[in-house]
Amino acid sequence: MNVAKRTFDAVIVGAGGAGLRAALQLSEAGLKTAVLTKVFPTRSHTVAAQGGVAASLGNSTEDNWHWHMYDTVKGSDWLGDQDAIEFMCKKANEVVIELEHYGMPFDRTDNGKIYQRPFGGHSMNYGQAPVMRSCAAADRTGHAMLHALYQRNVRANTQFFVEWMALDLIRDADGDVLGVTAMEMETGEVSIFHAKATIFATGGAGRIYYSSTNAFINTGDGVGMAARAGIPLEDMEFWQFHPTGVAGAGVLITEGVRGEGGILRNAQGERFMERYAPNLKDLASRDVVSRAMTTEINEGRGCGPDKDHVLLDITHLAPDTIMKRLPGIREIAIQFAGVDPIKAPIPVVPTCHYQMGGIPTNYKGQVVVPKDGNPNSPVAGFYAAGECACASVHGANRLGTNSLLDLLVFGKSAGETVVEDFQSGQLKLKPLPADAADVSLARLARLDGQTNGESVFDVGLEMRRTMQKHAGVFRFDNLLKEGVDKIGEVAERAKRTEIKDKSKVWNVARMEALELDNLIEVARATMVSAEARKESRGAHVRDDAPDTAENPNGRDDANWLKHTLWYSEGNRLDYKPVNLKPLSDDVEPIALAKRTY
Amino acid sequence: MSKRTVHFKIYRYDPDKDEKPYMQDISVELEPSDKKLLDALVRLRAKDDSMSFRRSCREGVCGSDAMNINGKNGLACLTDVDSLQQPITLRPLPGLPVIRDLIVDMTQFFKQYHSIKPYLVNNDPAPERERLQSPEDREELNGLYECILCACCSTSCPSFWWNPDKFVGPAGLLAAYRFLADTRDQDSAARLDNLEDPYRLFRCHTIMNCVDVCPKGLNPTRAIGKIKDMMVRRAI
């Protein structure tokens, strides 16, 4: 089959917040850039972020990046790399101010500055009291941000390939990255995008779980492509369960609701978070709140006829505040929970929300892998940013509002690194291997020729149910062991998926089958990494690693203060050290401590 | 909600195999948890994987799954399936070329959006901190910035149907006013010049279909009226 080749200085896969922020850097520097996206840019899932983006602007309460850094390291349960965390927290004000200059319609304080609200795990003076750090546009911050970034890219004349799905990463014999193969959805044609630099900004894979706040498109395409091309995946056992997904529907209700004063209540009407987190209460870190809710439900204090959820109560807030600060939440509650939150509380359950792990990168956005004794050796030509990447700033648990910050800071940083490497002449257009498109063409041929195969819908459902049962909010040794086998079986079935629709034109069935290939890599990585980590840390809490004097909260720093690396080939695990040393001398390392809120 | 069967009449067209479009009668049994039209369409896809439509966030914020539902444009993910009269008739958004089934070619729609220069223009040197804006001035953007570019409005507008290449349409004009109303933007004169034309702005005849269908409850007609006011004010 003849495959068209297109050549660029850089190709960016994904046009959510990270991809658009990186694209701006490249377009404004004059690099010939292609942005591939399987949906029109403003339909990327950044659009669904609600509560805000973190920056220590200090517009309403005193704040500084040191406090933000401390909160982030503590939130990560010390698994985050302190150089990347320092970099992110220091850069926060700059990237948020830039966004304001791009036209983002932030809410305002009375003196005209960017409005900020409290958020979970964010504190002043090293954990003493909640701080107002989340910069917000009502409860539509992601929407406002994504549109502002897209609009700025329109101004910068960025070249988009809309509704193109990237299929596979192209590496040569040296392991260098030379671009991607991609399929135009309208025609089904496959092309090679040959480039000096490839940036992945493909988002997360929350769709591996049955109950997820994530969009249909969040299928971990970049993570799957990287894994198939031999890049290890970092810390994939750590998944964030957001405390407040609408019970039954899974749709997100922002933590900003609790930031504005919302309270979680059990069947007795008790504000139970006072027992679990006496200091920050409902604004404790997300993993802590999700476990508390699950414990309440497991111990019979859930609400509703099946006692299977808790209630998020804002009926005590002034209707004006709700209409002004949380209008989108009110719409969602009416649409998906059938309640008007001005009058009645919203039924909520912990719901899969965010992938802390991903493609390993450094703070510059370069993808790094172990090589010749260096655990963090850059892969030439390959960069990643946003949820698909693991810098690692979120470690074992991400703080709310740090995801939008992550994609701004590291989208920009990856873009800056590419521009620097390009201008210094370090980036070369290496010749394409003759078989550059063969893997993708073979996958498509296999799919089109499959008979007596498996339904994509059924295999996907089995994967989601398996992940939900075997790698949920609380994890159990026996369930994890079973889960590894079960996911292995599901992965085998996924090799034999069959589609009935063979059309070339906008074939959703083909797309979903290709997406499932990516999801399966993520699901395998998650289950195998989780089974192996014999401690509790952040969002990964096991029954056989309880809170003891020796291992507070079940965390075992002596043996497990290290990043997991999972390789698809052979389901192999490796580990690398956590960087506990900040980037500069401006700050001391944040010393290990027991996490309490 | 219990299990129940719903009946559909759906516009089908695959240029790869169909000579012309046709309406397909099809039914599907819904699970108790299926509440929205999108849930039903996903259930339908499990039965017939050739049924093609766009979808993503399933919560009314990405704007992917706009379609014509029983004669009225709307988002499948925000439409209660049990509220619809059966057979539920689904067609692609009117007035745009169909690529396949319920998927339309939105090139013309986005071309008009891009034509209004949908980005903030401020040529002053960027200050170190945010540009200040009072809460009252910021409030002027409410009802404008929330647009999700789903195209329900523009594709329900007869003026857009007749002149999609010349009339900006309600979505584009809403965006135009979003920047005209922003106290941080300095490009008002050029923005108005760009719309001063018998077609671009003035083809709006306040039919108000846009207001009727907007899934976010926005009011493009009011925004268009405000642009017309600005035109008049600068003329006198």
Helices and strands in order:
The complex is a heterodimer of chains A (597) and B (236).
Chain A: E1 4-13, H1 17-28, E2 33-37, E3 53-54, H2 65-75, H3 82-102, E4 116-124, E5 129-135, H4 141-155, E6 159-162, E7 164-171, E8 177-184, E9 190-200, H5 221-228, E10 233-234, E11 239-246, H6 256-259, E12 263-265, H7 273-276, H8 286-298, E13 310-313, H9 319-325, H10 327-337, E14 346-355, E15 359-360, E16 366-371, E17 374-384, E18 389-390, H11 402-423, H12 438-449, E19 454-455, H13 456-470, H14 477-494, E20 497-498, H15 508-532, H16 557-560, E21 562-567, E22 572-577
Parallel strand pairs in A: 1-2, 1-9, 2-6, 9-17, 15-18, 19-20
Antiparallel strand pairs in A: 3-5, 4-5, 7-8, 8-9, 10-21, 11-14, 12-13, 13-14, 16-17, 21-22
Helix pairs in contact in A: 1-4, 1-11, 2-3, 3-11, 5-15, 13-14, 13-15, 14-15
Chain B: E1 4-12, E2 22-30, H1 37-47, E3 66-69, E4 72-75, E5 88-91, E6 98-100, E7 103-104, H2 107-115, H3 135-139, H4 158-162, H5 169-180, H6 188-195, H7 209-213, H8 220-235
